[in-house]
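call fold(seq) -> C-alpha cells
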Amino acid sequence: EAELPGAANVSVPSKRRLVKALSNLETDYLILDLGAGTSFNTVDFFLLSGSGILVAAPTLTSTLNAYLFLKNAVFRILSSSYNRKSPVHSFMEDLRKDGTSLQKIHLNKLLESVRTIDPEVYDKFREKVAHLRPRLIMNLLDDPRDVYRSQRLRISAREYLGIEMDSLGVIYRDQLQDSAQRSSLPIVAYKPQSVLSQAIFRIADKLIENDERLSGPLTNIEANDSFKEAELEAEADFDLKISSLEELLHSGALTQGDLVETVRMQQFEITALKKENRFVKKKLVEAAAQGFKV
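ret:
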C-alpha cells in the first residue's frame, strides 16, 4: 500500500467491497500483512479472522502497543454490536466526549453498564468476542527469559479484556537476516538450517496443525499449553544459537572482533532498554498520581 498513495485510507464502501472480494477468493490460506497502528481499517482487517496474529518484541513499548491494539479490537467489536438507535450508543458517546472517563473505566465495569442499558447488545457482544482468539509471536528475542513478557501480555489480555491468547512461538534476533536481505533472498532460502529459519518453519507447521481447532473459543488449557511450549522452544533455540556461534568461532568464520562487536551491540541495546524502563516507570508514577489504575 505504500507504493500507492491513499491505498491505506479506503472508504467504508470500498472496504466492504474489498472484504467481500477477499472472502470470495478460493485459497487455503489468505495472509494480510497489516501495518502497525490502531486505525479502524487495520483493526477491521485484523478482525476478519478471529485468530489474527500479533507480532511483538520483548520490550515494554512493544508489548504495551500489542495490548492497546487488542483493547481497540475489543472496543471495535463492542461498537459493532449496537446501532445509533440503541441507548448504548448515547452512553458510549458521552464517555468519548469525556476522554479521561473512557481511559480510566475498567472493561468489565463498562460491560456491566452495557448489560444494564441494553441486554441484547451485551449478548451480541459476548457472542462476537467469544470468537476472538488472537495468536502471538514474540519476535527479536535475545534470551529465553524474554518469553516472560508474552506471559504478562497474555495475563493482561485475560484479566482486563476477557480474551485468551494463543502462542505460536518465538523468533530470536539473528544477524543472518541482514545478510539475507542484502542478498535479496528470504532467510528460509538463504540459510534454511539457521535458528531463525527453523523458527519460521515451526510456526508455519503450527498454523497448519491448528487450523482445524480454530472454530471454537480458545480454552485456558490450550492457551497454557501453547505458552509453555513457547518457553521450551525459546530455551532450545537459545542453546542451538550458542552452539552455532561456538562452531563459527572455532572454524574461523567468526573472528574475535565480530564477537566483540556483537557484545558491544548487546550492551548498547541493554542501555537503551534501561532508559526505556525508567521512562515507562516515570509515566506509570505520573498516571497513578492522576488517578489512573496501573
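The chain has one domain: 12-254.
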